[in-house]
Amino acid sequence: MNLGRLATIRIGLPLTRKKGDVHDNLYFTYKTVTLKSFSSTGALLHSELDEFIANEELNENYITQEGDILVRLREPNIAVHIDKNSSGLVVPALMAIIKPKKEINSIYLTHFINSTIAQRKLQKEVKGTTIAMIKAQDLSDLEVVVPPKQTQEKIVKIFNLANQEIDLLNQLTQLKMQLKDELFSTIITKEQNI
After folding, report:
1. Domain holding 127: CATH number?
2. pTM (2 d.p.)
3. Nearest-CA neighbor of 159 among 119, 122, 115, 100?
4. Which end of the chain is more exposed for a tag (fewer CB within 10 A), N or C?
5. pLDDT in tens, 132-161
6. Which of the 8 DSSP states describes residue 73?
7. Contact 108, 79 (CB under 8 A)
8. Containing domain of residue 194, as a range?
């Protein structure tokens, strides 16, 4: 079934149209998602959010809500799931906001979009040589495999555990690299003091 039949898909807000300034009499401050906010495991990186000052209150269509999925339109076309801790963020125009209907688990759909199967299909739709991008219509046309709800939930549990393990291994790798650097610095410092 096409993604367009399973969800509503909307492009994010062109931020320059609503850009305000703290020196304006009336302004609104929001946190906004950036292209760097997308982790390869489908999680939103809160450390990579930016602040956005708007000249008016923004339409809620451009604000994340729990259960939404954001997809980068610029390569890599990673999808992230919005949980309750990630709601209330402004989505810029380089991203699509997907609001799944009830028959599909939004976390399953995020995993599906990030799967090799979907990524290959999206790769064929990429336009542009300098900045490779897909269109919202490409997402809408994406053929999605929709197993029964119970199977979707099993897949979500398995993938969530796998992603937790990947995150832990990445953290361990970072710590090992830091330890290696500190060890090297310690040895070199001792050698210089001899």
Report:
1. 3.90.220.20
2. 0.84
3. 115
4. C
5. 899 999 999 999 999 999 999 999 999 889
6. S
7. no
8. 147-194
